[in-house]
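Example record for the data management plan.
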Amino acid sequence: MSKKTVIVREAFDWITEESVGADQYETLIKYIEKKYPNERIVEQQYKRLRFINYVGVIVCSGVRYEIIPKINLSQDDERKALLSMLTVTNFLPISFHENVKTGEGKNDLLSVFLAAFLERLLLELKKGMYKTYEEHSDNLNVMKGKLELPQHIRKNAFQKTRAYCSFDEYTENNLLNQLFKAALFIVRQHTDKHLLKLHIERCLGYLEEVDLINFNAIKLNQNLFNRQNERFRDAALFAKMIIEHASIYSHGRQSSSFSFLFPMNFLFEKYIEVALRKVVGTDNVMSQHAEKRLLRNRRSGRQNILLKPDFVIKDAIILDTKWKSATYRDRSNYNQADIYQMYAYVTAYKDVTRCILLYPKQEEEANHPLWEVMDTDKTIEMRVVRIDDFEGTVKELRGIVLGL
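Corresponding structural encoding:
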C-alpha cells in the first residue's frame, strides 16, 4: 500500500527529488513517460517537476500523488470541486454523486475513486455472476463433447480408460470477469481503508474460480459487452482504466503503479457546456462549431483557416474556455494569441456581438478588460466563473451570458 501521500495543485506546486526521494522521483518520471508518451503531463526543471493541465491520482513506487485544481480553497474543497466536475460531466463511467452529496469527497481521491468502482462492481456481482460458454480441452475418464483424435492418440496410446476431449463449459471464467480480477489485484495493495479492503475481498470471493491473467492491448480492446452483461459496463470501463495505466517497476522490490489522470482543460470545457445548456437550453448551445473559415485562397478558390470556437450561444455569443488563471499579481493575465483568435471569430461570425474568454475563478480577481472592436458594436471580454459548486456556476453563467 502507499506509504506516503503528496498533494499538489496543478500548474502551481512542485514535486522535488528531495521531497520524495531519488528512486521514487525517477520512477515517477519513467511511469509518466511510458504511460503518457504523447501528452505533456509535467513541466520539468532541475530535480523538480509539476503537473500541467492534468489532475487526478498517480500511485507509484509506494507514493500516492494527488493532483488537484488550484481554485484557492482548502485541499478538501478543491478535491470536492474536482469530484463534482467529474460527476456533472459524466467524465468517468461511474458517478461520484453520492460521495459529493454526503461530503465523502473530503477523503483522499484514490479512496473515493476506488469506493465508487468497488461499490458498483460488488452491487452487480451480488445480482449474479456473468457466465459464458467457454471452450475447454482435457484428458478425461469419460467422453465429453468432441474427441480430439490426434491429441488423444498422442496422450493415451497406453491409457485406454482416458479420452482427450474438447467441450464447452458454462463458466464464470471469462474475459470480463478476468478483467475485474486483474484490476482488483492491482488496487488491493494500495489502500489501507478497512471498508475498501473488505469490498475488494468480497469481490474477489465472487471471482474465486476466475483465472488471474495478464492483459495486453489486444485483450483490453476486445468487445466485452452484450445484452447479457451490459449492466457491468461502467465497472468494466473503470477496471480497464486501472489496467491500462498500470505498470510494474522494480527497485529491489516490485511496486505496482497506476493512475487516474484527467485533462483539466477538457474537463473544464465539458463542465461549462453542461452549465451553459442549463442556462440557455440545449438547443441554443452549439459546441465545437466548425462551419466558418477565415480566409479564401484566390488561386484555388478554397476556404482556409478553420474556425472552431468552443461554444456558439443563440448565434449571438461566442464563448471559449481557458483553463488558466485570469489574474497574475493583481493584474489581468491573458495571452494575446487568444485575443487575436477571438477577433477572428467576431469577424467571421457576422451575427455575433460578444466574444467571451471564460476562465476559472481562482483568486481575488482583477478588473478584467472589456474591448470594443473598432467601428462596430462588437466586444471581446474576459470573464471568470466559480467552479467549486455547480449551482453557483450556473448562477454566475446566467449573469455573464444573459445579464441576469
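Summary line stored alongside the record: The chain has 13 helices and 21 strands.
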